[in-house]
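Q: What structure does this chain adopt?
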Amino acid sequence: MRMPDLETICGKDNRLLVGVTGGIATGKSTVARMLRAKGAPMIDFDLLAREVVEPGKPAWQEIVSCFGEQVLGEDRTLDRKRLSEIVFRV
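A:
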């Protein structure tokens, strides 16, 4: 199978969209730092995911409504460990 040419991949404006994914300790942060050092703009979806569940925000309210205050820490932020124990209980 022939690889597509760069214009097909990047489009006419020559931008390339790259998603860095992987499990724990697979080098995602290292790769992101390397790309950032080369001038690549970054969107940190881990950071965005934390922002949308800050206390009082709509997603936070829905999570608390669904799972109860048992998923909150003393500071009213989500206790991610407790929430994951409930969600992934087998």
